[in-house]
Sequence to fold (201 residues):
Amino acid sequence: MAREAGANGPGGASAEHDRGGEAGDRAAVTDHQVAADGTNWFQRRRRGIDAGDVFSLPLPSGGYGFGRVMNVHDGADIAEFFRYRSFESTYSDDILRAGRLFSPIGIMITAIAWRNRERPWRVVRKDPVYYPDDLYEIPFLSASGTGGGLEYYTLNDIRKVLGSVSPEEEKNGTVCSIMPQNPGWIARTVEERLPPQIRRL
Fold:
């Protein structure tokens, strides 16, 4: 892989405020970076979930892992997951300080509980001024390249292949898919990739 953009550290924040309501659910923020072709991939709210929401997810062997919603645009629902595990489904600043566990990945927004939508993933902190500064730099897996190999692209130009991805890079999460992944698979993957000293908590 030519680079590992998006694999290190959590995304940033800016002073954009949550619009809220149905209008905010539909509208995309327009005063931030856009893709090379002018497309604005960032959206603040969709289906009751906001970019910046930190959420807990139960892990198969007990306790909780934690993620943060980075974007809620149709076709680009993205979250990052952290090197952190707890027995409690509550927020701590240590979650964000722990850093990313693997590169951001596509999620199912409806896997997160909201109002009457009962789900095991639950929001534990909201951040209405959050903005993912590296949104257009995160590598995502593309369709198979020449000879069946994997390649990657970014939201800065979804039609431009930027390089190849080795099986090892796919396996260790250096680059992930933007396609919504099964919540159960994500929970297992989070637990498997936690460092041993954290996994044994």
Notes: DSSP finds five helices and ten strands in the chain. Residues 21-133+182-199 form one domain. The longest helix spans residues 183-193. The first strand starts at residue 45 and ends at 46.
